[in-house]
## 1
Amino acid sequence: MNQPSLETLRQKLDETNRQLLELLSERAKIAQEIGNLKEKQGIPKFDPVREKQMLTELVASNKGPFTDDTIRHLFKQIFQASLNLQVTDHKKQLLVSRKKQKEDTVVTLGDDVKVGGGSPVLIAGPCSVESYDQTRTVAAALKQAGITVLRGGAFKPRTSPYDFQGLGIEGLKILKEVGDEFGLKTISEIVDPAHVELACEYIDVIQIGARNMQNFELLKAAGEVRKPILLKRGLAATIDEFLHAAEYILARGNTQVMLIERGIRTYEKATRNTLDISAVPILKQESHLPVLVDVTHSTGRKDILAPCAKAALAAGADGVMVEVHPDPATALSDAAQQLNIEEFGNFYAQVRESGLLG
Ligand code: PEP
Ligand code: MN
């Protein structure tokens, strides 16, 4: 009998490829359906026991010429591809995702300051609320400059337990009093889930700091209230981890979340952290939430705040945060990096001049 020609064999192979593709696509659709069912039932997508079972059955039915190991290897690839498909589908469902919501989320601070609506906001204030007078002095200067949002830490997550830890609730009360006097919206960091509800009485925005970006109980507590949340990127958090942290808040029903890039740890020592400017357009692409940049904590350098703020705005940031203290040399935290009021004036003028603040 004549051997089939190379051409005939190749045609057979092409046909088999097509059939395999059809079967693989069919299999992928079934896997997607399973993924959706698991999603509804809250069952994990990856099931190692089931995978092992399938591999055992396949190997038992293997009549060659592929070895059992090769069959295992090939099917593991197929299983992984199906799992990836389920996870990608799942990602589309994230509440923070642009795929879920196309329009930008606009966060309203108090009843009139909008963040994410196309007109960038400048948030300024001391690292820590140290006293009524210190806070009031900064607030008066900021108000005069036309700033609408005042920041100030009352609960300070310090590296050393011997450093100033903040005035606590007393600090929030000072912020409220000063904010009310000057009609400024206020932001302060909360570190304890038990304080989230209480903090709502005093401040307009709850900040979750870099060190707490993955404090999941705090994120859940922030999701339970209906106050805007300013979520800082963790010291070594990937963008994906950052977005998932925000997802914790949205998943509990609080949609008023702002993301803020504050620099990440790298080997670079010229700045306190490395400002990841690329995070701004990536976050804006991936998510509908407003994205801000903290130029103070990311750089730790007063001399480059203005160009970094301009870069942030040019990259599409919805706002910039900067620390201002009446007398930085005597500040109880971050003394080296806070601007005094005159320096703030120069910084603000430079940023405004760029036309990027709107
Ligand atoms: C802050 O903004 O006061 C602060 C402590 O920043 P971070 O959490 O980004 O270090
Ligand atoms: Mn600080």
Note: Residues 148 and 207 are 17 Å apart (CA to CA).
## 2
Amino acid sequence: MVSVAVLGAAGGIGQPLSLLMKLNANVTKLNLYDIVNVPGVAADISHIATNAEVKSFLGSGELAAAVTGIDLAIIPAGVPRKPGMTRDDLFKINAGIVKTLVEAIAASSPRAFIAIISNPVNSTVPIAAEVLKAKGVFDPRRLFGVTTLDVVRASRFVRDLRPGVDAAALRVPVIGGHSGTTIVPLLSLASTPIDLSEAEVKELTHRIQFGGDEVVKAKDGAGSATLSMAHAGARFADSLIRAINGETVVEPTFIALAADPEGAEEIRALGAGELDFFAVPVELGPEGVKRIAPLGGQPSAFEREAVAVAAKALDTNIATGAAFVTGA
Ligand code: NAD
Ligand code: LMR
């Protein structure tokens, strides 16, 4: 019995994500918030014969009500990329949007889990953390950057190379962040060993790192991944909901490493060093992050090098996000 708010519910991701949340049998209340078009989306989705009660919240005057009494806020609000843009180019607009939304959650539902989809995730999650700290309600176990699409792509792209692989069952840990070379798939530690040449590992790693660009290019100015992201967001939200309901679930997600959760040493030793945030496979429970799940083996030399490259870029992305709130 979980109450969920989708913030940015009328958007390209927001609409299919809201649909998938309405289909989730564990969701009892579904609050849909946007600054445009959300009454129509909510009216439409509300006719689906599941038990979740759907409500529409339109505009900043209804934001506080949208995030009152919720267990989980999912945030896909903000602008997407066009060809030629990086995710960091979205910072100017999306930083302020995420800050405002998290301020409202901090005031009305300070113990809610917060799952951030809005890009650039490497910076919007640090923004959220600083907002929550400033309000005195930061619990690092409850704040998540959604990196599930990288994990989903990794499984599917492996199957493109090895058609015998079951894409739905294969799990590849993807660590680091969510943009370009900060995305580090650990193909050598996949749930089922995959026999790949060095060249194939390089090719696959690059494709997973830049998978978002394939969609941006194909949509040709009409935005970025929305349907695969809605699937990934709903899968991650379902993991959080199952965790809230007492199950132990493992999912990779971008979390506050600064809080030193159990298991952080392995990731720091691998190359995350003193970084405050990093995407890692996380064991989730009713209070959120229980611990970082062990990677289950030693990453290859190629993967360790990729982590070092990721760490450098992440350091800057994280500092940019934090500074947006602290002014430091
Ligand atoms: P979109 O433009 O289709 O939808 C965004 C929605 O946000 C719109 O409905 C808009 O009205 C709403 N919005 C804007 N300002 C708002 C505010 N202040 N409060 C509430 N809602 C607001 O964009 P999209 O394709 O759905 O992408 C949304 C974001 O998700 C982008 O930043 C995109 O880069 C990101 N994204 C992240 C991932 C990931 O893996 N984490 C994947 C795909 C896209
Ligand atoms: C993705 O990975 O598809 C998203 O982050 C959207 C983007 O800008 O590529």
Note: The mean pLDDT is 97.
